[in-house]
Structures are given as structure tokens and as C-alpha cells.
């Protein structure tokens, strides 16, 4: 494993144009393309099992699906990702059991330097993991930002942008998402 991949996995600054990381993203893009053009059934599941770090029993994803690496994504049992999911997995993305993710949702782990313009120009970045608890439901178009944890049994309204952790058993919505009420 090369230095940039090690740095990425540790959550440190790394350069995404590193040859090893580019090759791994190309592999994931090829598997995503194969998945997206395949018919439902065993062949599609086989591609997902090759691409992802974990795909729990009874879980499924609708095409079109995109990710950066795939192997940093873990999906629990009986979970569902609807059409056009984008998971930028430069850090681990862990999705619990019985999760429903609406169409066009985005889980984004990548971060770029805000204050150091030169580092950003040189393509340095970091990443922070996303964790989604059990029995969570995201309405369509939800965006989850780097480093966020969403607790069990939480519902996030359509079009929300989740910038901070959400506790268990709440309904949250808005941009940025805020807790509306307890469930």
C-alpha cells in the first residue's frame, strides 16, 4: 500500500491523483458501469459483492449507483439504496440494517482545505467517515456531509443537507438539517 492511500485511510491530507488511488477509482468505475447496465438478479448482486466492502443479506441497490472506491462501503442487512445514489467513499461509509435511502441521495466523505488555497490548488484533500444507524430513512435528494453520524430510527426529510450528527429517533429536515421533533 502506497503512502497516499495510507494517508487517506488515516484521515490525513493526501493527493487524490496518486497512481494507486486513480487505479482503484478506475476499477470501481468499471464495476459501477457493469452494475448500472446489468439486469436485476444474481449478476447484479455479484458485481456489488465484488465492489463493496460488505453487502448485507437482503440488501439491494437500484441503478444508477456511483462510488469512488467501493471497498470502504459497508451496507447492513435488508437495506435499500434507490436510484442515482452517489457514495464518495474516501473514508468509510457504514450503513446499518433496515435503512432506506431515497433517490438521488449523496453520502460525501471528501473534504478539501478551506483556508489553505495553495493546498487545495495542489489537489490535497482529507476525508471523514459517515455512519448511518439502523432503521434510518432518508427522503429523496438528502446530502450527508463528511464526518456525520446519524442515529438509529431517524428520518431525514427530502432535500435536506446533513452537516452535523443527528441523534436517534428524530425527524430532521432543512439546509442545514435540524431536528424538527422526536420520534
Automatic annotation (TrEMBL):
MF GO annotations: acyltransferase activity
Alphabetical list of SMART domains matching this protein: Mac
EC number: 2.3.1.-
Gene3D superfamilies according to UniProt: Hexapeptide repeat proteins (2.160.10.10)
A Pfam family per the record: Hexapep
Keyword entries, A-Z: Acyltransferase, Repeat, Transferase
Residue ranges of every copy of the Maltose/galactoside acetyltransferase domain listed in the record: 5-57
SUPFAM superfamilies, per database record: Trimeric LpxA-like enzymes
Enzyme class (EC, first level): transferase
Family: Belongs to the transferase hexapeptide repeat family.
Cited PANTHER family: ACETYLTRANSFERASE YJL218W-RELATED, GALACTOSIDE O-ACETYLTRANSFERASE
Annotated protein name in UniProt: Acetyltransferase
Amino acid at each position: 500500500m502506497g503512502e497516499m492511500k495510507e494517508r487517506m485511510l488515516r484521515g490525513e491530507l493526501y493527493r487524490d491523483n496518486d497512481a494507486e488511488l486513480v487505479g482503484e477509482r478506475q476499477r470501481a468505475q468499471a464495476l459501477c458501469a457493469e452494475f448500472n447496465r446489468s439486469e436485476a438478479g444474481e449478476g447484479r448482486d455479484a458485481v456489488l459483492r465484488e465492489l463493496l466492502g460488505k453487502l448485507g443479506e437482503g440488501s439491494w441497490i437500484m441503478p444508477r449507483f456511483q462510488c469512488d472506491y467501493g471497498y470502504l462501503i459497508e451496507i447492513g442487512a435488508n437495506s435499500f439504496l434507490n436510484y442515482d445514489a452517489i457514495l464518495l467513499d474516501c473514508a468509510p461509509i457504514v450503513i446499518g440494517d433496515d435503512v432506506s435511502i431515497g433517490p438521488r441521495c449523496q453520502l460525501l466523505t471528501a473534504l478539501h482545505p478551506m483556508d489553505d488555497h495553495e493546498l487545495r490548488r495542489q489537489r490535497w484533500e482529507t476525508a471523514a467517515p459517515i455512519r448511518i444507524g439502523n432503521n434510518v430513512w432518508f427522503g429523496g435528494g438528502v446530502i450527508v456531509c463528511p464526518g456525520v453520524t446519524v442515529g438509529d430510527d431517524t428520518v431525514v426529510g427530502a432535500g435536506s443537507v446533513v452537516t452535523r450528527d443527528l441523534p436517534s429517533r428524530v425527524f430532521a429536515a432543512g439546509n442545514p438539517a435540524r431536528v424538527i421533533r422526536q420520534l
